[in-house]
Amino acid sequence: MALLVQHPKTVREYETVFILRSDVLDDEKNKVLDRMNSIIEKLDGTLLMREEWGKRKLAYRIEKNIYGIYYYMHYLGFNDMVAEIERNLRILEPVIKYMTVKLGDDVDVEKRKAETADEGSRAPKDNVDYSGVEIDEEDLDELADDE
């Protein structure tokens, strides 16, 4: 009979960005955020930062949505936490897209808490100049046909 080997759990640093439908109600939005917080707490993680980046235009249409409400979460935890967070994001109806990135392995929790308190917002800046972008008439016709 084979014995199961217990590997030591390594605390890792992650960030997750997820997008909610732009027409989502406040109570649905709060349900999603509360569920994410409860998963992190239940699986012994640490939420370092959560930001609402606001309603932004999507790069491409997702499930007939042109706009979405962006959220950013920066947290410490174990790999099973990421799987559970992504499972929940996949089944929650207001969520249209999500992405998780591992930032580092074997993180000192107390040190990262102190460093995060000093960091500012991670929201992307809207200082892009789109004046030189050419819009193709065929693309505009396709958008008009879809609506």
How is this structure best described in words?
The chain is an alpha+beta fold and 147 residues long. It has a domain at 12-110: Ribosomal protein S6/Translation elongation factor EF1B (Alpha-Beta Plaits). 34% of the residues lie in helices and 34% in strands. It contains four helices and four strands. It has helices spanning 26-42, 79-91, 109-118, 137-146; strands at residues 12-21, 46-62, 65-77, 95-104. It has a four-stranded antiparallel beta sheet with strand order 2-3-1-4. Strand 2 (46-62) and strand 3 form a beta hairpin. Helix 1 (26-42) runs antiparallel to helix 2 (79-91). The N and C termini lie far apart (62 Å). The relative contact order is 0.23. The mean pLDDT is 82.
A few lines on this structure:
The chain has 147 residues and is of the alpha+beta class. The protein is 34% helix and 34% strand. Strands 2-3-1-4 form a 4-stranded antiparallel β-sheet.
